[in-house]
Amino acid sequence: MIYPLINQSLPAMLGEDFYFPNEIIDQAFRVSDFPDLKVSSFSTSDRVNLAYWEAGAGQPLIFIPGWSANGAMYFHLMHILSNHYHVYVLDVRNQGFSEKTASGNRISRYAMDVKEFAEHLGVPEAHYCGWSMGASVMWAYIDLFGTQGIRTLSIIDQAPSIYCHADWTEQQRLDAGAFTTSPERMIDSYVNMTTTNQLISGTRVLERAMAIDSPYFHNAISLVQAAIKDDMAFTGLVLFDHVTNDWRDVIQTKIDVPTAIFTGEYSDWLDSQKWMNSVIRNSVLYVYDKAEQGDHFLAFKNPQKFATDLHSFLQRS
What we know:
Blueprint: E1 8-9, H1 10-14, E2 38-43, E3 49-55, E4 60-64, H2 75-81, E5 86-90, H3 107-121, E6 126-131, H4 133-145, E7 150-156, H5 170-176, H6 183-191, H7 205-209, H8 215-227, H9 232-235, H10 239-244, H11 248-253, E8 259-264, H12 270-279, E9 283-288, H13 298-301, H14 303-316
Parallel strand pairs: 4-5, 4-6, 6-7, 7-8, 8-9
Antiparallel strand pairs: 1-2, 2-3, 3-5
Helix pairs in contact: 2-14, 3-4
């Protein structure tokens, strides 16, 4: 049985304090230097226990992580942004401290989890930020429930459709950001963390994930490795549904709130992010260059810039 977590500190959950490999000015050098950070959980309507991280006070800002990610990756971002917002990071099912389950591994169910999470918090309206698969979860949320309750939407580097249909034109593929015609083989490479050829997975995302070229990112990955025990037998269950969805109709017709789109020069999906910016009214596009760590992990490799840009966008909106 998975027991609920209630306002537990991270050192208490780890059984000891954790020291980061890189000491960064104005950032915590150990997790106990961020005493406001707590981890709790709630039970969904289908009885799955989901963990969430929170810190700070003010307007609620809710992050939905990407595939296989969790709140530990957001440590530095939460440390920065909690000065302005009540920040939450939801560990989606099978990720982070959340329960491992063979049920509900569909993006639509993850969207329902987000809705029930907001209801659990008693938050009628919040800023939402979805990174990678977390963006797809937010598109599913909007498809199912509309934008009620979403004050602003921020998207970090997610292709509207991962799967490329054989009859698409090259422009359609670029607009969608599609990069595989073989979902099963692509999923196998992700679950087993093995490289494959560009026809199977036309992306450099695993290469960029292994480029530990930022002290912030090194710290975040080190904390993830110390705190989280992933089980790819469960984590990989959602991938087929994630890969085969096409969200372009939702993006083009259903997003009616201020929207920020974050991407970078290293991104394999830069054209698709520009397409989203062209079809979403009131959207703002941020393109980080290579010197600014403009890849799929830009928010974690350059959290100071990302937090500044996000805060500026939220204040304007």
